[in-house]
Design a protein that fits this description.
Strand content: 5-15%
Distance between the termini: 13 Å
Largest sheet: 3 strands, parallel
Number of strands: 7
Radius of gyration: 17 Å
Structural class: alpha/beta
Number of helices: 5
């Protein structure tokens, strides 16, 4: 298995901070760290490409931070892993972006931003996955497994996973 980095809230401001956090995880786990997702998908709000460029400078190979904390869906409208282009430097950023499309809170705590109907949201994402031969990563937090504290979240997660597995071609 792989251990990835979940950078802290303010880490987006400096490749040194990202690199430092990555090295702590590496040193504690004894494994190299290749991937990342920022807490709350927190990238530089004025220049997200700067943060994405920092990932490469910190030695990361892939990132999953181009999700959105409020809205379900593909943040840049791209449904497959890709290498983003930095418009300022006119260079491709050599860190693979894997789209994170759905978080548990999109269906529960932030449902009002997504149309107020969980089934409509999930079915729309499923339809888009099929229509565009897209991929996605789900972000369901570990606390979702506690049905007493977070009713419905575990069920929503496993329903989506079961649907994906039934279609095949899942990794």
């Amino acid at each position: 298995f792989e251990i990835g980095l979940h950078t802290s809230y303010w880490a987006y401001r400096s490749y040194r901070e990202i690199e430092s956090e990555k090295n702590v995880v590496r040193d504690v786990s004894g494994q190299e760290v290749f991937g990342n997702r920022h807490h709350f998908w927190r990238l530089n709000p004025e220049n997200s490409d700067e943060t994405l460029t920092f990932h490469g400078e910190a030695g990361l190979k892939y990132d999953m931070s181009l999700g959105h904390d409020r809205y379900a869906g593909w943040r840049r409208g791209i449904g497959v892993p890709y290498y983003p282009f930095n418009a300022q430097s006119k260079k491709t950023i050599p860190v693979l972006q894997i789209p994170t499309v759905l978080m548990d809170d999109h269906l529960f705590g932030r449902l009002q931003f997504n149309g107020n109907d969980r089934n409509v949201i999930v079915n729309r994402l499923k339809d888009e996955l099929i229509r565009y031969s897209a991929c996605l990563s789900l972000c369901f937090h570990e606390y979702c497994y506690d049905e007493n504290l977070y009713p419905g979240r575990r069920k929503a997660y496993f329903e989506f996973i079961d649907w994906a597995i039934s279609r095949g071609n899942v990794w």
